[in-house]
Structures are given as C-alpha cells and as structure tokens.
Amino acid sequence: MEPNPDYRERREEEGVKKEIADIKAEMLATGENPLRIWRQRKGLSRRELAIISGLSYNVLNAIEVGNPKTISRQTLEKLIDVGVPGDIAGLYLRWRSRCRELLERKVAENEPCSGVWTGCPKV
Predict the structure, then answer these.
(1) pLDDT digit string, tens, across residues 37-72
(2) Phi/psi zone of residue 45: left (φ > 0), alpha (ψ -120 to 50 degrees), beta?
(3) What is the count of structural domains for the chain?
(4) Share of the chain above pLDDT 90, in %
(5) What's the predicted TM-score (pTM) here?
(6) Alpha carbon distances (Å) from 110 to 105, 115, 118
(7) Residue 97: which of 75, 73, 117, 74 has the closest Cα?
(8) What do you get for the CA distance between the two ends of the chain, in Å?
(9) Domain assignment of residue 89, yes or no
(10) In a domain, 61, yes or no
C-alpha cells in the first residue's frame, strides 16, 4: 500500500529541515560557508554545480568566498531549482555578514586580513 501524498510530502519536508539543521550545526562549528557545506555533502565540485545550475563557475566561486553582490533572486532560484534548500540563502547571508564584521574589525585594528573569508567566525 502506497503512503498518501501528504505523508510523503511531510517526510520530505522533515528531511529538508534535518539537512538544514545539520548544515547550520556544521556552519556554527566550523565557520564554513553553508552553500559550500551543502555542495560538498552532495559530492559536487563547483564546476559540476555550475553545470547543473546554469550558473558560471565564477559566480559560484564568488558566492563561496562571500562576495556581497552575488546572490541575486535569479541566482538563488537557479540554486533552489537544483535542490539547494531555500533556507541555505538565509544561513549564507548570516555567514557573510559575520565575515564582513570580522573584516571591518581587522581593518579598524590594523590586523592582517588574509584568510577572512575562508576562516570566518562562528555565527
């Protein structure tokens, strides 16, 4: 007997919620970019994600290093179309904001800024 569609839909939603919670936990523990975490968990290279999403490698690279002008609505829709949970964008924006705060603090305190985007603070 087939489970009813509502049950199947709820199970899929629960799976996505768990995936997002796991990604958020890893992001909090490591300071890593949530899109990169998702991509690596799926076993995709940036180039592969670029091909299946229709985005350029350079756009994906800019997103993963925190470029503030890269997540347009169109870019986000392309990522969601290939399975990136929409909540990842919210986590990404928090991650990028924390990285920017760290960079601004380092500049204000005349500290070296290298590696800020790859080793951001926990959010």
Answers:
(1) 888 988 999 999 989 889 899 988 888 877 656 677
(2) beta
(3) 1
(4) 3
(5) 0.68
(6) 8, 15, 19
(7) 117
(8) 45
(9) yes
(10) yes
